[in-house]
Model the fold of this input.
Amino acid sequence: MTASSLHKAAPVTQAHISLTRFLIEEQRAGRVNAELRLLVEVVARACKRISIAVAKGALGGVLGEAGEGEASINVQGEAQKKLDVIANDVLLEANAWGGHLAGLASEEMDHSMPIPDVYPRGNYLLLFDPLDGSSNIDVNVSVGTIFSVLRCPEGVTTPADEDYLQPGTAQVAAGYCVYGPQTTLVLTVGHGTHAFTLDREVGSFILTTRGMRIPEETKEFAVNASNQRFWEAPMQRYVGDLLAGKDGPRGKDFNMRWIASMVADVHRILTRGGIFSYPLDSKCAAKGGKLRLMYEANPMSFLVEQAGGAASTGRARMLEVQPTGLHMRVPVFLGSKMEVAAAVAYHDAHDAASA
Ligand code: P6P
Done:
């Protein structure tokens, strides 16, 4: 192509910016280093492989539970699906040899795992839920991979579980890949939240939204309402007022959505606003909640805050929670900033009255 014709080339539009180009430009701007850029590329490539496995469904013999009876129960006490194991194995293999990680931790593994001695170790720790919402797989509803990136503590060459116990504010990157009608990677490296849609013909993630923004107000809430009778009093009041609609204290009608796949619910909220909640209830209170802090709540909260939203336990900013264990569970409220503040206010009022 001659110099003159180069100048006549179609202007590069956002549609032509691949994840690779986006990350190179972030590196040029000093927002990521080469090792973190490689880490995100490796995770994205693993997500492409998981997307292919998920899409095969029954044709790939990947539906159903991983084992018989007790054999399929994972560290969470949940029945492990075949695709949970496949997704976990894909992420472990993809991240072992690149030299960007010191170790990794997974929802599907009791303990963290240092990178094997046969490979060089890097400066980062990767935590992930390899396939969130996997109870939806067999009914063809969107599922996804969630990941969080921390720095390996200075001077630690063989990281152990306690080296991962850093608050969400320590994350250097976070993201998810939702396997739905589109396969979309949503990523933050601490400078906004951005969406990349997989072009299956080329095999590349293409930037489709630079700088996702969550509307501060919403009329849409996401909660598993079947747990209503088990909720704490402030949650009962909060949702009761949502359901009262325009004739109630909130003065407007609300809509409800619940996909039972956090990745899908959060993607909707990042796209059009809303509030997602999995509050404490008397069934899960003894465990601290249902959702896991390190590889569900923290990465989603980082993405949401970077998109102008808010994330709370109902009583504290999610990203400031000090982890006490790799699989620690927390109550979750996240999404449109003003609505999260409203939900928190119900908890504050209840606690003040009970003090
Ligand atoms: P429930 C999926 O198992 C998950 O961890 C989240 O993805 C989802 O939001 C939640 O649990 C669904 O829980 O009690 O409605 O099945």
User: Anything to note?
Assistant: The longest strand covers residues 124-132. Residues 212 and 307 are 5 Å apart (CA to CA).
